[in-house]
# Entry
Amino acid sequence: MADGPDLTLLRQRIREIERRVGGGAPPPLPSDLGARVDQLEREVAEVAAMLARVEPMIARIDATVPGAATKAELERLRAQVAAQLAEKPSKVYLWGLALLLLLAAIAAPRVAALLG
# Structure
């Protein structure tokens, strides 16, 4: 038996891969590469033209709405409004107060008659 591991299978696998790849040579270029590059250049030119048309539109929109609030600003405002509303009396409290005033208005003449 040899001193190291048997590398026969590994060497065989490397030879198979080299045969498939072609001995390390780069793969051949597709025959339609020139046409594909030409198409790509046309499409890039179209994209550049479209961006040139869109850029002034974006600048106009940005100039039209300079005071538009960001999401963070809206969240801050929502928190402020919620805090201010929390300080206000609730509907139940206001209805209770109205009922108490109504009872006082109804009872006032009777109390005055009793005292007077």
User: Anything to note?
Assistant: The mean pLDDT is 84. The two ends are 128 Å apart (CA to CA).
